[in-house]
Sequence to fold (250 residues):
Amino acid sequence: YSDHMIVGLRYSYIFNNQNMMALQHFNYLRVDLESSGNLLHAINSVAGTPKTDSGYYQVLGVRYSQFVRMSIDFRHYYYFSRKTNSLVTRLLFGAGIPYLNSDELPYEKGFYAGGANDMRGWLFKELGPGEYSGDSPYEKVGDIQIEGNIEYRFPIYSFFKGALFIDIGNIWTYKKSETFPGGQFHFDKFISQMAIDAGVGFRFDFKVLIFRIDVAAPMRNPAYPASNRWRIAYLQPIDFVWNFGIGYPF
Fold:
């Protein structure tokens, strides 16, 4: 947590072929690309602006962040023949790389896992990074996120609807972190560090808004040793996480 300045650009591309007049399968894609600090760094370099004793440029006495960040969110909605039951899948990938004038991503630009809209078997920002298992005083954020979700939605009675879901994913740091040991991303390890939760949801569809209750349990927890990460046989009532939200998670 430190003072910093973000000066940059953000580009978003959204594709959605949903037919609002009919319930039929469709795709949703959102791509966000963001960068910060590049123009300022170029101006400082050309102008020969002196750096601070720590070796960084500042603007108005505040160090500015320099990074590139991208996220891809792809969803497929499939409606069955009765058009009352649906299956929704989502793939989410995000990565941010700090460089030159920054050692790490700004806190508010980091990725997190846990909560009502992604890894519902963990509390908000309680999962990861990687296989980190300590109790850090800092909220758990990372530079890389990989996640997949599948949710089956069905009616129960009138405005009361249900869902069954599985969430798979985690976050990682780009560099080795003293704050989160074991949280660095490695291509030969990230699959074994994927967390898995499963649960059931209840939705109250009042047309003007949807009130949602999801309860899930962590089935596979990468914070445990590699040989003991499947937790199904050890689940206790206290392990179930309740999430409340407005609208669908995706």
Notes: Residues 172 and 185 are 5 Å apart (CA to CA). The mean pLDDT is 94.
